[in-house]
Amino acid sequence: MLEAKCMIIKPLSIQPYQLMVESLLLRLPTHHSKHNFIVNAVGKERAGYYGEKKLMYPISKIDFSHDLLFQLRLPLNGAYFQMDSLVLTPRFLLIMEAKNYSDDVAFDSDFYRVVQKRGDEVRVYDDPVLQVEEQRYLLQVWMEMFNYPDIPIETLVVMTNPSFRPSGDSRYKEKIIPVNRLSSRLREISSQYSRQIISRKEISRLGHAFLDAHEPYVTYPDRRFGIVEHEWNKGVFCMECGRLGMRMMRMRWECNRCGSRSGDAHINAIKDRYLLVGPTLTNAEFREMTGVKSVYTASRMLGRENYNKYGKNKGRKHRLEYSYEKDFGYLEYLVKLYQDRQIKFKNKQINF
Ligand SMILES: [Zn+2]
């Protein structure tokens, strides 16, 4: 048997939308009327990401060569469609959708819905099989549009929560599987396709065409939730203790809760602003976000960062360019800090 090669063309990462809601939650006062709503939005994103992460291990055990893309969002006829993970092989493609349903879940294929029961609580979701079949159809249309060869597309819904107890339509048995059944199901699917339709090279080209066409969902609190800028707290977080509101003392940031110092703590605040407002920044906006008072100091600090500038004098704007995949690790760290010391930081609002 030939050695199985895996090429991850687009790795799993925390999506821009999740980064935005995580950052918003850290800065939104707990008494804000939409605070609970944002808590739920964050919870949903975390569960989704956690579920997708659980696919990684079984996928890493795939014993046939394949390329892999996670969280792909492709434009089609003015709209977008999204896939949790896409496996490419020269014989077939496979779309996998991860679901984190827990407890008793009944599949009702006559009405295309899923009913989850948790004690007295009942929730109704859209049918995930219908969802993944729709993705298959849209992917086919997309590939036809760009004249890619007709290659079979398989679909799977993977249940990632161990407490999941399915019932209902048995027609769904091969389409909806628990995550511990994934490795064997992948082998079964692979054994059904022996004919090579696209060469290895073409598969790699197709994978990169998907990557080039990918457009992440980027939005901001005002647009998405009607939460405008002055409703969330500005300021620089202390990465040692999590306090919001470090002060600038002799060109260094100082935390007056834990005493820690930093030369570049403001960078994370700028990144937060990138997530919450957008990619442009004026000197005044920098001062408002960080609490730096002097125009001159702000200008010096901005000058160090190599941002592209355009416009003149007061209207001068800096164009922020950050990578959603690489530049937001501080946010994960901060979220964990808050989770670990939850009680201590219940009241996080701090004024300059
Ligand atoms: Zn501190």
TrEMBL record:
The NERD domain, residue ranges: 47-162
InterPro entries xref list: NERD (IPR011528)
Descriptive protein name: NERD domain-containing protein
Species annotation: Filobacillus milosensis
Lineage: Bacteria, Bacillati, Bacillota, Bacilli, Bacillales
